[in-house]
Amino acid sequence: MATETDPQTGPGDATGETRTPFGEVSRLSGIVFEYLTLAASMFGILSLGILLSYVFWDAFGLETADPVWYAVLVGTVGLPLVGQALYARRNPVAGEVALELGSTLLGGVLAGLALVVVLEVIAGSEVWFAYFLTTVLPLGSLYVYGQRNEATWVGLAALGVLIVGPAIGTAALDPLTTVAGLFGGPGIYLLSMVLPAALLCRYLVGEFLELGNGDYAAGATLALAVVGIPVVDTVGVARSVWLLFLVALVMPFGIVVAKTLAVPERRVGFVAPAVIIVGIGLLAVLPETVGVAGPSPWFDWQYVTSNPSRFADQAGLYPAIIGSVFMIVAVAILTLIVGVGTAVYLEEYAPSSGIAASVVRLIRINISNLAGVPSVVYGLLGLAVFANTLRLGFGTVVTAAFTLSLLILPIVIISSREAIRSVPDSLRDASYGMGATRWQTVRNVVMPRAIPGILTGTILALGRAIGETAPLIMIGVATSIYSTPSGLFDKISAMPMQIFVWASFPGEEFQYGVLAAGVVTLLVVLLTMNSIAILLRNKFERSEI
After folding, report:
1. Could you tell me which residues come within 8 angstroms of residue 153 by beta carbon, excluding any fewer than 6 positions away?
2. Could you tell me the end-to-end alpha-carbon distance of the chain, in angstroms, rounded to an integer?
3. Are the C-beta atoms of residues 505 and 511 closer than 8 Å to each other?
4. Could you say which of 53, 96, 442, 519 has the lowest number of CB atoms within 10 Å?
5. 3-class secondary-structure state, position 543
6. Which pTM was predicted?
């Protein structure tokens, strides 16, 4: 008599313990797929690592250094890093402290450079002071008031300041800059940067972190700003630069150090960073004091502060750096306002029925399609619309900003829509159930939870924009200029354009050293921009938890 066989067991297996061939094949396929994905990831990481190593080797001229210099590098920088990583596996607190100190130091340096470029070089202290009075100061005051008081009108007031403040600042620019000229650059930054930073330090030390007396911390910040001026005068550093770096680097690093010293268990994290800082100092003075040959870098201070030249040892990227930063700041402002606003409307306010809903659906489809259009097409569009029709100028800041904004706008809109859509509907329903209006729900519930995702998409989009070359060629951006832009209608160059030109120069010094230094400069600017955006994103992520 025939017996039924369980399909989950093999023939002759009544207990069901033997695996079926299907189960073995499925497990084998999973293992193969896992290792294939690992191999693909490692291939990409290794390829990028080799490429960056090659570029950095040429940019810093490491081939000229003696073996003794490399031995000091390994002993004072490499081994402490490895030792810190191994010790952090047993004591995670030490690794956390070292990472916090290192990231604060590096982030402070990059933020200080960004402030110097944007406020001191591009805008100028007088122009910054005008917009500080009409926009930044009212916004900061509204934010502080809103944090300390339950006021529903603060959000609308802040929106009004964002719209009206820049317009007032532009209209009253001449008299405000005249008044600002009475203070001078250092006086302007002392009032508009150091004083607010001291108040922030007072809050962080005295209330938020509870590290001590906040009044003493604020007083120390102001005193350091004044006492440091004679010191920087002796070393040839501009007073305005010192005050900006005090706000961006010295104050945050001092707070992190104070927070670490306040907890005995965290003090061990000072060891590796201190050794590495001493090692970097030794590497800097070793060639001059002992006579050991060090690197001959192309990427140095002279390179980032000089104009282009037909001689490799005199070539610099300064006008292109300023042009790229000026352009990308304008692009970021345009895309954030238009892109995020469009995404909010499409997800929160757009009609869901009728003819209007069909139009909205068509717009969404077209936005998705525009994200895949080649960049050269946007260059042609910028040439036809902004340069020729609107006559904004060929190769000007405003033409380049509008063109690149069109290029990345679909990416920003799509990523912002996804971030807004990821906020659960239950939170919206709960807000409506408590009597909140749609505007209050969007402002207090949706946007705080969507901002991390919005900033992530914006980071990727701006990274694409700053490295684009084809659209800039189409709108007539100069390959090399010898002056920095001072307004939106000035002609500019950009780092990708200058690097593109240097790649065609016949000399090996240009094709390897100068070109590699340009790539490193572009990476540094990109990392600076991304670091600021990542810090903002992490802040909103922490506040959401």
Report:
1. none
2. 66
3. yes
4. 53
5. helix
6. 0.76
